[in-house]
Amino acid sequence: MNVVVLGSGGREHALVQALSRDPAVTRLVCAPGNAGTVAQAESRELDPTDAAAVVDLAQDVAADLVVIGPESPLVAGVADALRDKGFAVFGPSADAARIEGSKSYAKDVMRAARVPTAAAMVFDDDNDCAAYLAGATPPYVVKADGLAAGKGVHVGLDLAQAVDFARDALQALGGRVVVEDYLDGPEVSLFALSDGATVVPLLPAQDFKRAYDGDEGPNTGGMGAYAPLAWLPPGMVDDITARILQPVVDEMAARGTPFSGLLYAGLAITSSGPSVIEFNCRFGDPETQAVLALLETPLSGLLMACATGRLSAVGPLTWQDAAAVTVVVAADSYPNAPVTGDAVVIGGLPDGVTIQHAGTTTVDGRVVSSGGRVLAVTAVAPDLAAARERAYEGLAAVRLRGAHSRTDIALRAVRGEVTVDG
Ligand code: AMP
Ligand code: GLY
């Protein structure tokens, strides 16, 4: 099978690594890729949101399957352009990608599907929004209605800051802002494969969105992750699938915009059960690095089954009976304008540790940083404590000037401090 993976982040490198382990994959191309994907896949320079260029590439390499990693090409309709030319694609249509691209659309689907989520109000006028916030209860949650790479959300106790964020979002991005109730409880990222009708959940993971230890500092794309979640009550994944993921997939099919690809539910496990924080229309980064490290079922067959409407024929997934921890190495100043162009040096890694490159490129044969999240270190071990230890041993082998990582990825889970109320 000839497979093209679109994108250049850590998530795409994890997809490339999993596909390169799959004997059914005979040719693997990552476009544009990074300094890490070149070890397992051919690279092709292109803009993944340029539909014509992507179709040309798929034709050129006689792709049997195109896997679209990031949200921007999905929202831009690249999956539609490929399907129009007869290619099998893993990733939703532009219409279905609105589940991530438009917070108000997602809320509307959830309302129709009776899926639990935070109550929300949508505003297009900053004075109306400010008046509403003044009467709301903190913490305030304000979201820009559009793609903002995980950074279009403000959560905080200070009213003036919430009002300023809403005003800036309305001015900068135009459109609308959503103000919603604060959901209390540990967060879960649950990924599900869907072919538009059948839903197959992957292992649940937890992401660390804030830049610094103790969940301090600004929101980022994600600074680390681990899977599975031993603290999640038994049956919770099945419950989320039955009460949240399947109803959303059914509702989208009923609207004539079936969701085919990866449906990512970001949830809070509140005292009254799981509630949706957000949906994404693609694999999460860096949770994918941890989740795919544990997957034993060959990935290409799963993605192809989604692309061709045959997911119901796929048997149960098999997973390593182990845990995975992923720690992101971020460039100096990330999530603000990151410092780039520094040498990235990786020494010997302990057993069970792999690296997923993200913001890296090759200059004169040397690997240099080229983005905010530079790479991720992922460790697999029999239990979470061992995986965490090994991930940090692996991290010590990475050298990048000014780099920062969180030191507390999976720490509270190892200590048994993550609990669900109710
Ligand atoms: P999002 O971009 O929607 O994933 O939001 C980023 C982060 O903000 C989430 O991972 C949560 O930590 C936090 N967040 C978003 N919405 C809420 C909410 N309604 N209640 C509590 N935290 C939230
Ligand atoms: N890790 C969060 C995301 O991919 O959106």
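^ adenosine monophosphate complex. The two ends are 48 Å apart (CA to CA). The CA atoms of residues 360 and 369 lie 5 Å apart.
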